Amino acid sequence: MLVYHTGHHELPEPDIRIGRKNADFGQGFYLSASDEFAGKWVREQKEQAAFVNRYELTLDGLSVRRLERNEDWFDYIFRNRAGYADRCAEDDVIIGPIANDTLYNTFGIFTSGLLPREQALSLLMLGPKYEQIVIKTDKARSQLRFLSSRRLSTAELREMREALLQEEEAYQRMLGEAFET
What we know:
Blueprint: E1 2-7, E2 29-31, H1 35-41, E3 51-57, E4 64-66, H2 71-81, E5 93-97, H3 100-103, H4 117-124, E6 131-135, H5 138-141, E7 144-151, H6 154-180
């Protein structure tokens, strides 16, 4: 499968051990199957180039866990964010939805414990469903092949940021309506 990662560096050999252990799907190298969506992740930084790195991931022989937006997914995210041991650490690859609160600046509200569990889960179901692919093991990393990188122009970064802001506004409206009911 073709997968993409956007950041401020070309990454021909990514390290699966860099990054937060308390990220939604635990420590690993986070990717997207969508070139367009991958570009939305990068934040424009002064005097920093941004690159979309393109890879091929072969899943043959790997333990792949696929998650859907449901209670199991919610529990997995909640436990990882809370710093519990990653119950899927032995899986080579995890493919599943991104929690929209990480995209739309409401990070942690739903998994903070401030809302009842059922309400938090229903709110995380709102909005568009984007998938992430997380490479968690050296075995999976060995099956990731760097293909190319593409430097994003300032205009592309602004277009992607504007598209994300429009999505965020729509999401915030949905969220407000959900809180009103």
